[in-house]
UniProtKB/TrEMBL annotation:
<dbReference type="GO" id="GO:0016747">
    <property type="term" value="F:acyltransferase activity, transferring groups other than amino-acyl groups"/>
</dbReference>
<protein>
    <submittedName>
        <fullName>GNAT family N-acetyltransferase</fullName>
    </submittedName>
</protein>
<keyword id="KW-0808">Transferase</keyword>
<feature type="domain" description="N-acetyltransferase">
    <location>
        <begin position="16"/>
        <end position="183"/>
    </location>
</feature>
<dbReference type="InterPro" id="IPR000182">
    <property type="entry name" value="GNAT_dom"/>
</dbReference>
<dbReference type="InterPro" id="IPR016181">
    <property type="entry name" value="Acyl_CoA_acyltransferase"/>
</dbReference>
<dbReference type="Pfam" id="PF13508">
    <property type="entry name" value="Acetyltransf_7"/>
</dbReference>
Length: 231
């Protein structure tokens, strides 16, 4: 796939190109993406397997997405992004049927990490990687992008259209809800399709993501009774 167009770089900065990561990028991709989680001794180890796999739609590597930002003057890899399905879906007790899991995996995307080399920050690299990822997930007919991030990044993600929160609540068919919370990081979300929205529901502790799956679109008078949605 051809490189995605890059937003205009900041004044005085050399241009860069966002493209799919390739196996030859592994040795430079790994130390850059590790900057997104510097306290983990082997962060994003799954990325090695992703980069070793052949390119395959609908994303860069089937249901995983690995992107790099490459400096046009030097050819240096200056930024990296890794995305894919939210991993919590695979172990959530509320997802009790394989067909439901498959539908959610095909509709919900997650940014696992974005990182930019310190020498190349404030050039719009992270924004370009995020925008390219959203475009790819949208083209692949995903309805929602999510990201688990540190509170220090609230302003960045809010600026790019994400609703910042401490939990995700997802509306399922048959008036069900599933949720995911974290203790010290954010769980933020952005609809990628007009049918998907974050709704305020009376009784629900957080805004509810609705319209993601057929048969799961909340009316305005919906309420949450502590166990199920009522409408």
């Amino acid at each position: 796939m051809a490189p995605l167009p890059d937003p205009r770089p900041s004044t005085g900065s050399a241009a860069f190109t966002v493209r799919d990561a390739r196996p030859a990028d592994t040795d430079t991709f790994m130390p850059v993406i590790a900057l997104a989680d510097p306290l983990d001794p082997d962060p994003f180890g799954l990325a090695r397997d992703v980069l070793a796999s052949p390119p395959m739609p609908p994303l860069s590597h089937d249901r995983s997405l690995a992107l790099v930002a490459e400096d046009n003057e030097t050819g240096t890899l200056i930024g990296a992004l890794l995305g894919g399905p939210p991993r919590w879906l695979f172990t959530h007790p509320g997802i009790d049927r394989l067909p439901l899991l498959e539908r959610l995996v095909h509709r919900m995307g997650m940014i696992n990490g974005i990182a930019v080399h310190p020498d190349h920050r404030r050039r719009g690299v992270a924004a370009a990687l995020l925008g390219a990822a959203e475009q790819r997930f949208t083209q692949a007919r995903y309805g929602l992008m999510t990201v688990n991030h540190e509170p220090a990044l609230d302003d960045f993600y809010r600026h790019h259209g994400y609703t910042i929160g401490d939990a995700l609540l997802v509306h399922l068919p048959q008036q069900r809800l599933i949720g995911m919370t974290t203790d010290d990081t954010r769980m933020s979300a952005k609809p990628l399709h007009p049918a998907v929205r974050l709704a305020d529901v009376s009784g629900a502790p957080h805004r509810v993501i609705t319209g993601l799956l057929p048969g799961a679109s909340l009316p305005d008078d919906a309420v949450f009774d502590g166990t199920r949605l009522q409408y």
